[in-house]
């Protein structure tokens, strides 16, 4: 059976806003039992996410979870306004 592959490109208003979303979302790996591979790529102000799996249900669940996370991330950025710095330096 051939793998199911879904690619998404999410545009952000700025490169920094895309970087924040990238940093927040990529730290949560898919559970191993889902058998889903998720790959993030940042290109200027676009966040590209690719999901690969062999079972449609698992890909659908991964996409649903991702959509919930990206919506929360975007709404949080709207709530707090645009980033005030070009780098995250809180470590």
Automatic annotation (TrEMBL):
It holds the Pfam family Pcc1. Signal peptide: none annotated. The keyword tRNA processing applies. It comes from the Eukaryota. Keywords: Cytoplasm, Nucleus, tRNA processing. It is found in: Cytoplasm; Nucleus. GO terms for biological process: tRNA processing; tRNA threonylcarbamoyladenosine metabolic process. Belongs to the CTAG/PCC1 family. Component of the EKC/KEOPS complex that is required for the formation of a threonylcarbamoyl group on adenosine at position 37 (t(6)A37) in tRNAs that read codons beginning with adenine. The complex is probably involved in the transfer of the threonylcarbamoyl moiety of threonylcarbamoyl-AMP (TC-AMP) to the N6 group of A37. LAGE3 functions as a dimerization module for the complex. This is L antigen family member 3. It comes from Polypedilum vanderplanki (Sleeping chironomid midge).
């Amino acid at each position: 059976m051939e793998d199911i592959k879904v690619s998404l490109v999410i545009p952000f208003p700025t490169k920094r806003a895309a970087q924040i979303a990238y940093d927040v979302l990529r730290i949560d790996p898919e559970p191993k039992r889902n058998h889903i591979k998720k790959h993030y790529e940042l290109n200027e102000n676009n966040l590209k996410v690719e999901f690969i799996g062999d079972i449609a249900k698992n890909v659908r669940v991964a996409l649903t979870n991702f959509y919930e996370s990206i919506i929360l991330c975007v709404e949080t950025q709207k709530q707090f306004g645009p980033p005030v710095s070009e780098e995250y330096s809180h470590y």
